[in-house]
From TrEMBL:
The lineage of its organism: Bacteria, Bacillati, Actinomycetota, Actinomycetes, Mycobacteriales. Belongs to the cytochrome P450 family. PROSITE patterns: CYTOCHROME_P450. CDD domains: CYP164-like (cd20625). It comes from the Bacteria. GO terms for molecular function: heme binding; iron ion binding; monooxygenase activity; oxidoreductase activity, acting on paired donors, with incorporation or reduction of molecular oxygen. Keywords: Heme, Iron, Metal-binding, Monooxygenase, Oxidoreductase. This is Cytochrome.
Length: 407
């Protein structure tokens, strides 16, 4: 494998800085440094950091690249993964994704639109009664939670029964770069809690099938193939963990960007049709999923660097999304940019199955915040980030306002 400009020591230091708690509020200077040197070889050649847009696209779309950490030379440090779309490779991934796609159809997404806007109306009305509100608990989180519960047919009052476990399980998406044995043990316990809840929910639903997504997943069939019980459970766990937290983080990160760029907030307020464009820009500018891991299964060239089979590749989506070689003035937040080709939803075989739903929720929420919350002001020192590195999200963020415009 060829060497890069940065020494092993420098590369390891930069990588360590990315995962340091002090970097959480603003990882982008570190990501810029990693992108400048990308591809970067670390851990004695067992890990390569991919950080510019073109290289990330190449790796994500290469059909020979795999997702299973056990295929890497670092694999011994990785726990066993469930039968989730998140960790599978073809042909198993292809089969399960095809079946899930038959249930998670564009019609399901379209049918959710009126409910999305109704929930946003309710949340804005709730904000009206408060002179100061928390963006996450009062706005960003309730929307995807209520949509996810409606999709899966989960009684909203049961959300508190599994939400803490879903958050604990999301911690392992930091992979083993910062995850320790205690985290893995806790995540396994959280996964078991979710599995037990879902087993009970699925049993109840089998006796009373409806039009919700869970009923569709139970019944989905193609050429005699169905989802096994384990596949069904793992798919539902993925929807519960990623389906609400990543969208909540998208909305919160987007609101934060709008608050720091009032001219962009005003632009969106005067043109609600920019909702999808603003959502894509929020995803590009401050991605709720910062990176993914991929494994080389053949010798490949990435920007002149030879990557050998078994090498793990840390694909920094958030760094690629700020690559000035692809996005002019990439560190500027611009709701009119039209950055639909961002990598926040990944690319290739593992492109996010729920991207259209996330975009719809983000567009409704960001347009409403920009157009209906009057004179919002970020309360100083109120922004606190969650400890997660990969699932980048704000834990609390307080805003005052001068009233709201109700429909």
């Amino acid at each position: 494998m060829t060497t890069t400009v940065a020494s092993q020591h420098d590369a390891e230091s930069i990588l360590a800085e990315l995962f340091a708690p002090d970097t959480r509020p603003d990882p982008y200077p570190v990501l810029r440094a990693l992108r400048t040197e990308s591809p970067l070889i670390v851990k004695g050649g067992d890990l390569v950091i991919i950080a510019n847009y073109a290289d990330c696209q190449q790796v994500l779309r290469d059909p020979s690249v795999r997702n299973d950490p056990k295929l890497s030379r670092l694999g011994k440090d990785h726990p066993e993964r469930p039968e989730s779309l998140l960790f599978l490779d073809p042909p198993a991934h292809t089969r399960i994704r095809r079946l899930v796609s038959k249930a998670f159809t564009p019609r399901v997404i379209r049918a959710s639109q009126p409910q999305i806007h109704s929930i946003v109306d309710d949340l804005v009305a709730g904000i009206a009664s408060k002179s100061e509100f928390d963006v996450i608990s009062d706005f960003a989180l309730p929307l995807p939670v209520r949509i996810m519960c409606a999709l899966l047919g989960i009684p909203l009052e049961e959300f508190d029964d599994f939400e803490p476990a879903a958050r604990r399980l999301g911690r392992v998406l930091d992979f083993n770069l910062v995850v320790h044995n205690d985290d893995l043990d806790d995540a396994e316990g959280a996964r078991n809690e979710l599995m037990n809840y879902l087993k009970n929910l699925i049993t109840r639903r089998r006796g009373d099938l409806g039009e919700d997504l869970l009923s569709r997943l139970i019944q989905v069939e193609e050429e005699g193939e169905v989802l096994s019980e384990g596949e069904l459970l793992a798919t539902c766990v993925l929807l519960m963990v990623a389906g609400h937290e990543t969208t909540a983080n998208l909305i919160a990160n987007g609101v934060h960007a709008l608050l720091r760029h009032p001219e962009q907030r005003a632009r969106l307020a005067t043109d609600p049709e920019l909702g999808i464009s603003a959502t894509d820009e929020a995803l590009r500018y401050d991605a709720p999923i910062q990176f993914v891991m991929r494994i080389a299964t053949r010798e490949m060239q990435v920007s002149g660097t030879t990557v050998t089979p078994g090498t793990a590749m840390l694909v920094l989506l958030a760094a690629a999304n700020r690559d000035p070689a692809h996005y002019p003035d990439a560190d500027r937040f611009d709701v009119t940019r039209g950055a639909a080709d961002h990598l926040a939803f990944s690319a290739g075989a593992h492109f996010c199955l729920a991207a259209a739903l996330g975009r719809a929720e983000g567009a409704a929420a960001l347009s409403a915040f920009a157009g209906r919350v009057i004179d919002p002001v970020l309360v100083p020192d109120s922004v606190h980030y969650r400890p997660n590195v990969n699932l980048r999200g704000i834990q609390t963020m307080s805003v005052t306002h001068g009233g709201v415009r109700l429909r």
